[in-house]
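User:
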Amino acid sequence: MPKKSKAQKTINLALQGGGSHGAFTWGVLDKLLEDGRLDVEGICATSAGTMNACCFAYGKHEGGPDKAREVLHDFWYKVHKSGERFSPIRHSPWDNTFGDEIWRIENSYGYMMFDLITRMVSPYQYNPFDFNPLRDVLEDTINFESLRKCDSTKLFISATHVATGKVRVFNAPQMDIDVALASACLPYLFKAVDIEGEDFWDGGYVGNPALYPLFYETHTRDMLIVHINPIERHETPTTAPDIMNRINEISFNSSLLQEMRAIAFVKKLLELDMLKDEHRDHFKNVLVHSIRADQAMSDLSVSSKLDSSWEFLTYLRDLGRKNMEEWLDKNFDKIGKEDSVDLDQEFLYSVTKVFEDREKWIENKKKKTAQ
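Assistant: Predicted structure:
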């Protein structure tokens, strides 16, 4: 059992992956910890979400909320410093020329070369010694021996088993630096990570993140999903990088949407009293909450997922803090009582609704252009 907390309410968290865009989740967690009204029983996470989850759990285990905020800050600052030292990708002088803060770096020579190389050569060829700067960042930030003893936050970290294509979920007592790296191992950037003789890739392909451990391994009904991969886009991508990015977003969201459909189905069975009494106790009526910044994330280019500049990371952090503050003001009273999202509208919407949303988006864009 987790340590008792003086927080008024308890929730679970589901944290997606998405490279540097994970700094948005950093901001969400930072505000949650600062606010102090919520305690977190369990976190399921993938990729960048895994980094945030490990920092959160380790820091809280070592010194409570303030220490967790410190560890999160230190991790992302070290990511920035590592990028300054090792990343070939830099902002070019003409990036963000028009001040729209879309943080595009695809015009930089470093990014164009990086993109070309990773499309033509595998990491087994261009990175034979499997150099990964993230390993040093994690070693400098988190004591994994201490994290394995964490009893204040349950961890459920997803990675993709290469041989079977199935998700494997690791818990806190199983955590080490290889598990963390496996959860964030994009196969076109790094060699597969060996764990107990088996190879693993980024968990986002089969669980971004996997939600089911929160149903069976925790007591709280409330689950807050922090999205950093847009579910909706109102414009069809036309450039090669944008097309590839949208394909990745769709594939990385697909497993999550499948689980949301399962949740909606179970909730409907419970609502309509369609389960026999002897089976009802086997199903949890999960209360679903979500923080989605689809518009903000849609405005960011695919190249920004590799942007480790401190200005960009803190921009996303502040955006995450703002979204979390607004979410708390609007939905705190619903925790423990009801969903704060309409599953049909948010995750299972019809084609008709997509068209309606797109028409509204087009109309708003025309108004902004006219102004």
